[in-house]
Amino acid sequence: MRKRARPLLGTLVEVRAQGASATAFDVAADAAFDAVAQVHALMSFHSPGSDLRRIARAHAGERLAVHPHTAALLTRAQRWARVSDGAFDAGCAPRAVESGWLPLPDDAATPGQMPFEEALEVEGNDVLVHAPVWLDFGGIAKGYAVDLAVAKLRRAGVHTGAVNAGGDLRVFGTLEETVHVRSPFDPSELWPLAALRDSACATSASGAVVARMAASDHAPAPCSVTVLAPTACAADALTKIVWQQGERASALLRKARARALVVRADGSVWRS
Amino acid sequence: MTSHRWLPFPSSLALAAAVAPVGAFAASYATGDDVARRTFKTATAFADVLVAPSPDEAIALAVPGGLPHGPLRTIEARQGDAVLGRVIVDAVIGKFEQIDYAVALDATGKVLGVEILTYRESHGAEVRLPAWRNQFVGKTAADPVKLGADIANISGATLSCTHITDGVHRLVAWAARHPIAAKAKAA
Asked: DSSP string of B3-64?
C-alpha cells in the first residue's frame, strides 16, 4: 500500500493506493491533492476570492458564472435540502458567523430569510441569485473533495485505494477498510466500527460543525452521527440530516443506500 | 460494488467493555528525501545540510512557550551548479498526535508544497503525562457523552492543521534569513 498525506481542507488529507508503481502513484496522488486544493479554494468562506464569497456578495437578480465544481456541489446541496425538507441547510453561514465559527465577511450582501435552495438557481455553470445567501458547504465540500480525489486517482490508473480527509473517508476497488472510533474511556484505544468496500463514511459530532445546527426536537439529543454511504459527499450530507431527524431519516437512508449510527447523549446507540 | 456493514458495537456505551480495542493509529507516509525527489524532478544531486540555528533563531523556530528548536535538517536540490530549492524537515505536536512534516521551498524561498512524513497518535507513555491527559478531561466512563467529540477522529486523522501552518510560517521566516541562492553563487 502506497500512501501520501498533505495538510488541506483544515485537516489531514491522506491518499492511498494498492498495486500502483511508485511513479504512477506520485502522479496520481499529485492530481488528487491538486483537486482537493482546488475545491478548498473555491468553497472557502474565509477567502474573499472564493466562489462562495462571490455568491455571498451577489444581490437579488444577479447571475454569476461559477466553477463547474461549485455548480455541481450547489446542485447536490439543494437536492439534499429538498429530500430532507430543509433539514440539510447550506445557507447556514449567517448563524455560523453569529456564533463565531466563521469570520464576518465585510463585503457581503445582507442575507435574507429565503431557504438557499429557493434563493439560488443553478443553470449550467451559472448561479441565478433570487435573494442574497451566505453559503457554507462545510462537510459536504470535504466529502465532494474526497469523491473528486478518488475520481482523479482512478483516472490516473489507480484501481484500488482510499482517500481520507480527517474522517471523511472513501475506499474504492477491492480494498476492505475497517473504520475505527476512539474509545471514550481510554483515548489510546481505538474500537473497530464498520467495514467498507467501494463505499464511504462520514461523522458529525458535537463540535464546530454540528453545534450550529438547530437543536433536535427529539430527546435525547445525539452527540455523534456516523453514516456509511456510496459517496463521501452523500455520507456527509446525511450525517447532518440524521442528526436532526434521527430515526425519521430511515427511509431516506435506505433510498440513498446508506446506514447511520447515532450515539445519543445518554450513551444509547441507534443504528440503521 | 458498494458494500458496507457495521462491526459488532454495543447498543449502549454502558456495554462498551464488549468491544475489543486495537492499538493507536500511526502512519508513515514519506521521507524528506522522497519529498525532495518528488518536488525537484530535474535535480541531479541532493545534499543533506544540517543547520544549527543561533540561540535567537532556536527560540523563533520553537513552538511558542516550547523548548528552543534543535538543528534543522534541510535537503538542497541541485542541478549542476544551480540550487533549485530545498526541503526542510520539522515536527509539531498536534492535539492527539505528533506530526513530522516537510516544507519544499524554491530558491527564492517560495513554498512549493507541504507534505506529511509521519503521523502518530499519542499513546502509552504520553497518556500518563498530565498535560496530554488534560485534553481528555471529562472523557471518563461516567461521562460517555464525550464520545461524540471523539468519534470525529474516526479512522485516525485528528490533525491539528494550525500547528503545521504555524510551523511552516516559522520555517519560511527562517529560510528568508538564510537564502540559498546567495550560497549557491559563493560555492
From this structure: EEEEPP--SBGGGGGGS--BPPPEEE---HHHHHHHH-TT-SEEEEEEE---HHHHHHHSPT
Residues of B in contact with A261 (CB under 8 A): 6, 9
| Domain locations along chain A | 2-36+140-271, 50-136
Q: Does B129 touch chain A (CB under 8 A)?
A: no
List chain B domain ranges.
24-144+167-186
Q: How many CB pairs under 8 A join A and B?
A: 203
Q: What is the ipTM of this complex?
A: 0.79
CB contact under 8 A, A14 and B157: yes
pTM of the entire predicted model = 0.84
| Cβ–Cβ gap A197/B4 under 8 Å | yes
The distance of B186 to chain A (nearest Cα, Å) reads 34
Ramachandran area for residue B167 (φ above 0: left; ψ -120 to 50: alpha; else beta): alpha
CATH number, domain A2-36+140-271: 3.10.520.10
Domain A50-136 sits in CATH 3.10.560.10: no
- Secondary structure (DSSP) of A187-239: TT-EEEEEEEEEEEEEEEETTHHHHTSPPPSSSSPEEEEEEEESSHHHHHHHH
B70 CB within 8 Å of a chain A CB = no
Tell me: the pLDDT tens digits for B33-49?
Answer: 999 999 999 999 999 99
SS3 A74: helix
A31 in reach of chain B (CB within 8 A)? no
